Amino acid sequence: MTTVSDSNIHEPAAMRAAMVNSLRGQGAITSEPVAAAFAAVPRHRFAPDATLEASYAPNGTVVAKRDEHGLEISVMSAAHLQAVMLEQAQIEPGMKVLEIGSGGYNAALIQEIVGPQGSVTTADIDKDITDRASACLTDAGYDRVKVVLADGEAGVPDGAPYDRILVTAAAWDIPPAWISDLTEQGRIVVPLTVCGLTRSVAFDREGTGLLSRSYCLARFVPMQGEGAAEERKVLLREGIALQTDDPRVVLNTTALDQALNEPRLERWSGAAYDLPDELELYLTLNLPEPARLHAAQHVIDQGVVAAPALLGVPALVSEGSIAYRTRRENEDTGGLESGVIAHGPQAESLAEHYTELLRTWARDHRRRGAATFRYLPTPAPTPLPQGTVPKRHGTVTVSWN
Ligand SMILES: C[S@@+](CC[C@H](N)C(=O)[O-])C[C@H]1O[C@@H](n2cnc3c(N)ncnc32)[C@H](O)[C@@H]1O
């Protein structure tokens, strides 16, 4: 086992060992095969232009490509997220694995886990990325990994069925090929985007559809090509944007912008605010007309919108009114209390509805892993039941226990 001493701390093997320790400490690595893979694969060889420190930072990404606007379209994902997803996938020696979204490093980790009897195919839509991944894999000694240039929307039928499919770009939907290309006992781990939120969901088959086994917070570059997101984004004014993919939401830009000029109504839930990512998921899936409100720092400094919107916050939108979550210190609720800020003619009723959801979550679902995702490759029923999100090829349903 590689250990870190003062003398070798800047050498790749020592940095790798330190990264593995850190990933174990953070709870991202929980199994020996995943730990062994991270200890074996020389991560820096897949980021030749980055410093060793950047390559081995457990929570850092390394950019591989930006688009013409400077937005990241390909990165070497953070080791922390890769570890969490590999643990979710429960890959075993001898398995056949498809990765959608290449870079080389994650495919090499998978190759370590499946071993000589297993096989790994990695597909990317971008030739620059497949060329780079092939070169890095060869350089690092992982030339058994098959690199394919393809839009992952259609899967990679040549090689199917796969025991595992790992998707490493944020997917707005689950195309039919990903289900049909999976073995009966297969598992797909996919960063699924639902109403603007992305969670890495491990799905097993359930009938013709999929049932989640675990989920966790994930941030990925968006899927390109045929499977790109179907979202509406509007700017209310410079620095304030709303985004939604829910067909029920009407985005009346002028009225909503005017509403923000009206005095704000504040309501407090009397309930604890914690586990923000779990609460956010619950709110987004249970608000009757959900959208995501984003605000820039200068708008927050002006006092137009409160601070939670800086990172994006679930909002309830109805005609010319809007309500969104906030929080304040309150020792009586364990440190922090959740609340709502609302604007517009319906501020009172939206705030009441929103506050009730905050209380319900705190009372009934305030823990990790309370949600179960289902994916059915059939159209959503009308009217849309709460927790049901229509997609292009099927329907996502999220229930809570
Ligand atoms: C986060 S990077 C992948 C990281 C990689 N798995 C690693 O080892 O770190 C996401 C990749 O998904 C690719 N991608 C986006 N849309 C795609 C699609 N429709 N099919 C295949 N690849 C896609 C991008 O080109 C990008 O390289």
Automatic annotation (TrEMBL):
E.C. number: 2.1.1.77
UniProt KW Cytoplasm keyword: yes
InterPro entries to which the protein is assigned, alphabetical: Methyltran_FxLD, PCMT, SAM-dependent_MTases_sf
Keywords: Cytoplasm, Methyltransferase, S-adenosyl-L-methionine, Transferase
Record-level GO BP terms: methylation
Organism superkingdom: Bacteria
GO molecular function, one term: methyltransferase activity
Enzyme class: transferase
Region (Disordered): 376-401
Pfam family, one: PCMT
Main localization of the protein described in the UniProt heading: cytoplasm
Protein family according to the UniProt entry: Belongs to the methyltransferase superfamily. L-isoaspartyl/D-aspartyl protein methyltransferase family.
PANTHER family: PROTEIN-L-ISOASPARTATE O-METHYLTRANSFERASE, PROTEIN-L-ISOASPARTATE(D-ASPARTATE) O-METHYLTRANSFERASE
Identification of the protein by name: Protein-L-isoaspartate O-methyltransferase
Organism: Actinacidiphila acididurans
